[in-house]
Design brief:
By secondary structure, this protein is of the alpha/beta class. It folds into 2 domains: 72 residues, 434 Repressor (Amino-terminal Domain); 181 residues, Endonuclease, Chain A (2-Layer Sandwich), CATH 3.30.870. 46% of the residues lie in helices and 13% in strands. It has 12 helices and 6 strands. The protein has a 6-stranded mixed β-sheet with strand order 3-2-1-4-5-6, with helices on both faces. Helix 4 packs antiparallel against helix 5. The chain is globular.
């Protein structure tokens, strides 16, 4: 039975442009949904949903479609547009710089920074912060954040430095199993050739930046842009005065934080305090 497709308007959204191009390439290849399903190892129902813009083309489907149709990086590029379409506008400039940065430094006051989050952790956050959201919306948010983590891989990846308040390590998000997985993932990145993680212990008391999230993005030309976010708002700055002030505050946070070795010990202690009998809330 042939599954009908509704009319799409490519100019209306990146998602509809993606679906239109998938349908076009499939017709050019004279490939049925059944055949494409066999080639890319996705169900016919899922492919139909992507083609009609009713489902998001979550990774790694774009790479598989490009291989199936011999389209280079066409669908991977289209996915970039879909992903950005589902990202808050105020964060757009930060994402652009994140993909080009030579060095990324970040402070997380109360939650684990996005680039460090496991899928389970971010899903639990999105479910809690978006009451009433449907599965498709949550999947979209997760996919967008997961795709950012591509910058962690590859030969040209930046140098990363994260500082976390102890609250981000101690606050159990998603239940013990999810949090244990999150802390385990962080331990692997505490001190590597490209990554450093430090934790600011509670005993330090009041410290710079404790009321906000800060990201410092330094490009290959040594220019730095600051992205600072608090509840419900975020803004990017690249003027010298603001950048120098925030760099100084970040350096002060480093001075307040434990060494990578001490931070690893604190993370392990937090893992030991997780109650293994408490059910996961995902």
């Amino acid at each position: 039975m042939t599954i009908g497709a509704r009319d799409l308007e490519p100019a209306r959204s990146a998602r509809e442009l993606y679906g239109t191009e998938l349908h076009r390439q499939r017709q050019l290849a004279r490939m049925s949904l059944d055949r494409l399903s066999d080639v890319v190892n996705y169900s016919k129902t899922h492919l139909h949903g992507v083609e009609t813009a009713e489902r998001l083309p979550l990774p790694p489907i774009s790479e598989k479609l490009d291989v199936a149709f011999g389209t280079g990086e066409l669908f991977q590029g289209l996915w970039g547009g879909v992903k950005r379409e589902h990202t808050p506008r105020r964060f757009d400039h930060c994402l652009e710089l994140e993909a080009k940065a030579a060095r990324i430094q970040e402070f997380g006051a109360s939650i684990v920074p996005g680039l460090l989050q496991t899928e389970g952790y971010m899903r639990a956050l999105f479910l809690e912060c978006n009451p009433g959201a449907g599965a498709e919306e949550i999947n979209s948010l997760v996919a967008g954040r997961m795709s950012r983590q591509e910058v962690l891989r590859g030969d040209g990846r930046p140098d990363f430095w994260w500082i976390l308040n102890e609250a981000a390590v101690r606050q159990s998000v998603g239940g013990p199993a999810v949090m244990r997985e999150q802390l385990t993932a962080m331990l692997a990145l505490v001190g590597t050739d490209h990554t450093t993680i430090q934790v600011v212990p509670f005993e330090v008391g009041a410290c710079p930046l404790m009321n906000s999230t800060l990201i410092l993005l330094t490009l290959t030309d040594n220019s730095t842009t600051v992205y600072q976010e608090s509840a419900g708002s975020g803004e990017a700055f690249d003027d010298r005065e603001t950048v120098m002030r925030q760099l100084r505050d970040y350096d002060r946070m480093k001075a307040c934080a434990l060494s990578p070795k001490g931070s690893a010990a604190l993370i392990k202690a937090a893992m030991e305090n997780l109650n293994p009998c408490e059910p996961s809330q995902t």
